[in-house]
Amino acid sequence: MTLQAAQKPPADSTKTLYGGTGSRRLTVHDIAAAKQRGEKWPMLTAYDAMTASVFDEAGIPVILVGDSMGNCHLGYETTVPVTLDEMAILSAAVVRGTRRALVVGDLTFGSYQEGPVQALRSATRLVKEAGVQAVKLEGGERSLPQTEALVQAGIPVMSHLGLTPQSVNTMGYRVQGRSDEGAHRLLRDAKAAQDAGAFALVLELVPAELAAEVTRTLDIPVIGIGAGPGTDAQVLVWTDMAGLTAGKTPRFSKQYAHLRETLGDAARAFAQDVAGGSFPAEEHTFH
Ligand code: KIV
């Protein structure tokens, strides 16, 4: 869709997730209902209040404070170094910047792998301190005890399977589930995550046919990234989506704007005005 065509949400959207006009914050029950209706919906990452408020006003129903903040916001090379402190501070900012979106905070590497007790402590912090409505954690079978403990404690959990960037040091950045065995494992993990009580599942970098099969099999919504068109929802990292990321963006991503160019142009224009003495002008000046 073009940017102009996307200016307004769909006309009959009061009950839909995307573009819905209600002012209350969305819940995991709204997300579940969208799957029943067969509605496809968008999710974006955000790492600060101002950007989050733009996406909230645009009707994005779910905002993920992803640990992709490591690469996209904090200047790390991977998501691995991101700390729970950093996640808590930026998640709180995103919650403050939004009114309607359901905000999901990522459990950072090392904040839940020790087991359910550590996971509960970390997730409780994000819910109480930052005010997120749900948390996300990576891994299938290996993270089931954590998922069960959080759900039992009343914390909604979004699972993340396929490519799990916190495991980059063992997994690399490769499409997952291409072999028969890998596909079976992924399907098994997806069902197990649902059985453990996850309210949604992110599938990253998996073949489209497999992602569609998981989506058909599960009752909970499946959110794809690099997983083809057959999932219930799609997520993109906002800096990739808006063209702020430097260099090459992943093939599965799409740029809907060119913010890097726009910001660079603005900075250069400002610098030239200052160097040339045309800023500040009379209208910017107090006497
Ligand atoms: O951290 C993140 O942004 C994510 C998305 C890619 C799903 O996990």
UniProtKB/TrEMBL annotation:
The keyword Nucleotidyltransferase does not apply. Its EC number is 2.1.2.11. GO terms for cellular component: cytoplasm. Residues 1-20 are annotated as: Disordered. Its main location: cytoplasm. The active site is at E204. InterPro entries: Pantoate_hydroxy_MeTrfase, Pyrv/PenolPyrv_kinase-like_dom, Pyrv_kinase-like_dom_sf. Keywords: Cytoplasm, Magnesium, Metal-binding, Pantothenate biosynthesis, Transferase. Pfam families: Pantoate_transf (PF02548). 3-methyl-2-oxobutanoate binds at D67, S68, D106, K136. The keyword Ribosomal protein does not apply. It is found in: Cytoplasm. It is an enzyme of class 2 (transferase). Mg(2+) binds at D67, D106, E138. One of its GO terms (molecular function) is magnesium ion binding. CDD domains: KPHMT-like (cd06557). Its cofactor is Mg(2+). SUPFAM superfamilies: Phosphoenolpyruvate/pyruvate domain (SSF51621). Belongs to the PanB family. PANTHER family: 3-METHYL-2-OXOBUTANOATE HYDROXYMETHYLTRANSFERASE. Homodecamer; pentamer of dimers. This is 3-methyl-2-oxobutanoate hydroxymethyltransferase. It comes from Streptomyces termitum. The gene is panB.
